[in-house]
Amino acid sequence: MERISILRMGEILLVTIQVDMHDRLATALQDDLANRISVTRARGVLIDISALDVVDSFIARMFGDIAQMARVLDAETVLVGMQPSVAITLVEMGVAMTGVRTALNVEKGMALLRARMDEERADDDAPAE
Amino acid sequence: MATMKTRIAEVLERNEAEILSDWMKEQATALTQRPDLMKESELRQQSTRFLKLFREAIAAGNNLIDIQQPIWEPVREFIGEVSRSRAIQGFSPSETATFVLSLKQPLFTRLRKIHEGQPDYLFEDLWNVTVLLDKLGLYSVEVFQKTREDVIGRQQKEMFELSTPVVELWQGILGLPIIGTLDSKRSQLVMETLLQRLAETQSEVAVIDITGVPVMDTVTAQHLLKTVTATRLMGADCIISGIRPQIAQTIVHLGVNLGDVTTKASMAGALAVAFKRMGLAVGPARRQSGETA
What we know:
The complex is a heterodimer.
Chain A: E1 6-9, E2 12-16, H1 23-40, E3 44-48, H2 57-72, E4 76-80, H3 84-93, E5 101-103, H4 106-128
Parallel strand pairs in A: 2-3, 3-4, 4-5
Antiparallel strand pairs in A: 1-2
Chain B: H1 2-14, H2 16-29, H3 40-60, H4 73-89, H5 93-101, H6 104-114, H7 119-162, E1 167-170, E2 173-179, H8 184-201, E3 205-212, H9 218-233, E4 237-241, H10 245-254, E5 262-264, H11 267-277
Parallel strand pairs in B: 2-3, 3-4, 4-5
Antiparallel strand pairs in B: 1-2
C-alpha cells in the first residue's frame, strides 16, 4: 500500500502530500505521524497541501484530528499552501478548522514553527536565570 | 386569399412612389423623424428599402399574417437592423415602432381608392394589413428592447469586472476597497479574487475596506465572515476596516457575531495593525545631520 512519506528536519516533521488523498491513506498518515512524533520527539509538524486540488470534509476533519493529536504529544501543527479553491469549498461546507494553524507556504510555516519553539525555549530558560 | 395577396401587392407595386412620399410625410408629422438624430435622406433610404422588401414578401408569400415564415426573413432582418441602429442612436421605443406603423395611413388610402364600393374586400384587406403591420411594429420594439438590454448587460459586466480591484498596499499586504452593495454574487467574486491574489503574491495580510458599502445585512456580514475564514485557512490574516457607525449599529442589532475578526475604523488603522503583525514600523524619517530645524 502506498504511504505518504514523513521527512524529519531537526525538530520538525515535514509531510508533503502529492497524491490525491483517499480515506485509507489519510488514516494511515494519521497513525504514522503519531508514531513518528513520539519516536522522534518532534516539536512541530508541517503539512504541505499545495498540490491538493480537492479536500473533502473527511480529510479536513483528519487534519483537525492530527493537529489535536500532535498537541497532545506536545507538537504544533501548521497546514501550509492551501489552494484558494479548496479554501472556498471548505468555507462553503462550514469547515473552519479553527484548531489548525495555517501558513501560506512552507517557508512561512517553518518560520512560524521556529518562532514558536524559540518562544517556548525562552520561557523555559527564563525562570532558571 | 390569393386574390387578396395579389390585390395588396398590386397596390404596392403600382403606387410605390406615391405611397413612399405619403409615408415620408406621415413620418414627419408623426414626430418620429428626429432631425437631430437622423438625416432625412437616410430615413428616405430606409423607407424605400423597407417598402421594397415588404412588397416582395407580400408578393411571394402565401400566408400574409405569419411573419415568422422564411419568406418574411429579409423584412424581419431589415427591421431588426433599423431598430438596433435606432436603439443605439437614442430613439425612444414608440419612435422606433412608428416607423413601421405610420405606413398604415398611406396604404389604407390607396386600398380605399381601389375598393371603392366594395366594403367587404376593403374590410378584409384593411384587417390583414393592420395585423401584419402591427406584428412588424411589435417586432421592431422587441428588437429595440433587446438591444437596450444587451447594452445594460454589457455595462453590468464591465462594472462587475471593475468592482473588485485588489491592490498591493505594501509588500505582503493586500488591500481590497469595496464600493457599492455586496450581494452574494459579488461577495463570491470578492472572495475568489482576494484568495487568488493572496496565493499569487503570497501576502500575509489582507485588508478589506468597506467604507463604500452603503448597507449591511446578515447575508453581507455572513459573506464577509466567510471571506475572513477562507483567508485564514490559506494561512493569511484578514482585517476589516471602514465600518461606519450606522453599520456598526446594524451589526450589533442584527446580532451578527464578528467575534475574532480584527476590525478597524479606518484603512490607516488597519494598515498600522498589518505593519505590526509583519514586524514593520513606520516612523518619522531621520533628519540629515547637516540640516537644521
